[in-house]
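Appendix B. Raw example, untouched.
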Amino acid sequence: MSETRGQAGYPATAPGHITDHGLKRNLHVWEAIGLSVGAMSPALAMSFSGPGVAALVGRGAALSFVFAGVTCCLIGYGYMLLTRKYNHAGSVYGFVGASLGPRLGVFSGWAMCLMYFVFVPASAAASGYFLAGVLQDIGWWKGADWIWLALPITVIIWAFCAGVIKRSTRALLYIESVTVTLIIALMVVVVVKVGQGHGLNGGTLTGSIFTLPSGVNVHALLLGSVFGFLAFAGFEGAGALGEEAQNPQKAIPRAIGSSVVALAVFYIACIAVQSLGFGATAKGSAAFAGSGGPLFQLADVYVGGAMRDLIELGAAFSAFGAGLGAAVAGTRLIYAVARDGAPKSPLARVSQPSGSPRPAVVVVMAANVICLLILRALGATGLEVWQYLGTLGTLAILVGYGLVNVGATRAVFDRSLGVPQWRGVLPAIAVILVGYVLYANVYPAPAFPYNMFPYMLLAWLVIGAAVIAFSPRLVRRVGAGLAQDLGLPAGRVPAEVPAYPADD
């Protein structure tokens, strides 16, 4: 069955990437917001991120999130500039390909694939870890092992991702809304009780949580910001729905912009309140850094066990949402690259009536199961799986973010986007900040095993670069496909890619 422009967002006659069925353009802005918010998973992020930052910067943990939040807002602005003109299921792959050429488009997509391959199992492990904690707390399953919960959670993610995307994105938004409401209620209680003199470790309400303690330098602040970027990872998820959203030139930029700004405010406030809750003192910072679940611990102390269990259960659902959001975006990326580079591959197919690229779903979920089983065999806990894979995935996504903003900067200054050139300054600043964060994770090297992750990323990128260098025909097909996907008959992509038979 041939496709129409209304179905998939590219011409029905485009040679080389007509698939059996098309993506459905039936999503509104709220579904796009749901994917971005669900992929960021605020409840999961706030349940895990704080201790790692506090171990590096003490009471100034919120400052690392201020840096990450400002940087992600700048990164998000680069996305918004590009999504106002380009709409592509491959998100980063399409945006970078349109602005910097097909080689860098494929390279950015390769980098993002690593993020999706590790972020889905990290989220499933976190969900199983939280759910195991709840079951043990209420006495239903003593000694519950996270892996026996993570595996069925993976099956559920698989079912949602292979189903109707509209239902999945709405579910993500509902899940996060309920859990975030509970967390905000806890934050209010903590601030009130600390203000009344009932804080832990002699803590009081103080503005010192936005200053670095003595002996903590800017390098530690930047290392801590990696946990902040991990919390924001996924805000770009709505970009993958460019071919499924109604009026995408407005819906996608709004979804990305509103999601990243709203959660930047929430994250900074939540980490600041956690610092206050444990006490903005040396003793309090040590307690925060050593907590296995700071939100749950604060809920237990300041409210009670019922609130703790509710938030932990909400965090389990939030982690599920993060995995689903990453799986949805990752499968669209794989599908988009396949339909351009290998149009006859099963990965280039979309199933009906679901409108989901189910073969691509199989690839992402298979990688998920393999990662989970290997890490469990190595004795990793659910918390460690999240921390290790999440950190590796964050470094990978920063590469994609950097390339998107290089592309946005170039597209603004060469007037491809038709906006004033001063707007290119903001994504250019984002590129500098992202580059510096990546550098800070290499030199001086962080503690083991975090010092290994930059080299794992480098190995992945070298493999991708080698494939691109030795596959010129693939790059030509990708370039031609991108040109037609994005409606650029005379733009940069086709100028770089000479005509090439799709079946060669």
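End of appendix B.
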